[in-house]
Amino acid sequence: MSDKEFKTIDEQLNILKSRGLTIDDEEKASDFLLHNNYYRVSGYSLTLRNHDVFSKTASFQNIIDIYSFDHELRHILLKYLEIIEVQLKSVYAYEFTKVNGSTGYLDVNNFTNADVYQKIVDKAEEQKNKRLPHEAYLKHFIEDLKQPLPLWAYVDLLTIADISFLYSISQSNIQSTVAARLNIPHKIMGKFMHSMTILRNLCAHGSRLYNRLFEQKPKLSKNERSLLRILKNGKIDDAHLYGFILVIKRLLTDKDFSDMKSEIALLTKKYPFVNMKYYGFRNDWSTVL
Predict the structure, then answer these.
(1) I need a labelling partner for 204 at 20 to 30 A (CA). Which of 2, 146, 224, 241 fits?
(2) Contact yes or no for 196/247 (Cβ under 8 A)
(3) How far is CA 221 from CA 38, 242, 250, 253, in A?
(4) For 17-35, what is each residue's pLDDT tens digit?
(5) What's the confidence (pLDDT) of residue 4?
(6) pLDDT in tens, the chain (289 residues)
(7) How far apart are CA 188 and CA 156, in angstroms?
């Protein structure tokens, strides 16, 4: 099989024009493609074309608007996902140490799966060694006090995925108290944490959210599912970003969620071309959320 043939920026623009895309400012379009990658950018044009033929009204500026909206939306979500992540770590550390002590996490017997536990510990140890020369709190415990980290400090080494896995292998009484603290039913707390891990990783790595269909759909209540968009075939749209927004609402305070919603609303005014249905949002999302 031969490799794909290299195309210059000018050739890339000619391909887009040959497919019917209007390009009013070629210098701007060239600069955008150079800095954002033709292959990556093409994913943001899918709703503007039928296979390789663009709609008659489609322009390169439309693609820039969609791309920019998605970029700024990811950064809004990251800000609030960080609040959720810090909260999850804090509550977990508090409830775990209340029962098992500050270093009880070092005892594999306090967890239900030794293999998963070891993977988390090994990863955290690697992080600790990398960050030791630069982190004052690590130097304090390890070099000055010569003590193991208490869990409330140790969780800083963990990602949201790590804390999700650690929660999943914790004893049921720990899981129950953590979930209760966050006002989330015990049975779905782990699924919520997993959903936030998926979304956080996509946002952190600059992955496209626009028109993305999620294979792993969030666990929603009957009331939350009633807020989802109805598709033309009569089915609910539970595969786009909006379902994850409903989970975020459960995990944030009313004030934080209201702030996030306002920021998204302002973003829609900044980029009025972007149709929120491609994120799964209903037309009345700002009033029903």
Answers:
(1) 224
(2) yes
(3) 40, 14, 11, 18
(4) 999 999 999 999 999 999 9
(5) 80
(6) 457 889 999 999 999 999 999 999 999 999 999 999 999 999 999 999 999 999 999 999 999 999 999 999 999 999 999 999 999 999 999 999 999 999 999 999 999 999 999 999 999 999 999 999 999 999 999 999 899 999 999 999 999 999 999 999 999 999 999 999 999 999 999 999 999 999 999 999 999 999 999 999 999 999 999 999 999 999 999 999 999 999 999 999 999 999 999 999 999 999 999 999 999 999 999 999 9
(7) 24
Task: Give 112's DSSP letter.
Answer: S
Task: Express each pLDDT in 113-139 by its tens digit.
Answer: 999 999 999 999 999 999 999 999 999
Q: How far apart are CA 63 and CA 190, in angstroms?
A: 37
Q: Which helix H or strand E contains 259, and what residues bound it?
A: helix 254-270
Residue 49 to residue 201: CA distance in whole angstroms: 28
CA 244 – CA 195 distance, rounded (Å)? 7
**Cβ partners under 8 Å of residue 275, min gap 6:** 47
b/e 75-109 (16+ beta carbons within 10 angstroms → b): ebbeebbeebbebbbebbbebbbeebebebbeeee
d(CA 173, CA 171): 6
Q: Supply 32's token pair.
A: 């955008």
Beta strands in the chain (DSSP E): 49-50, 53-54
Helix (H, G, I), strand (E, B) or coil at 71: helix
Q: Which two tokens stand for residue 85?
A: 């992540």
Cβ burial, residue 2 (10 Å; 0-12/13-18/19+): exposed
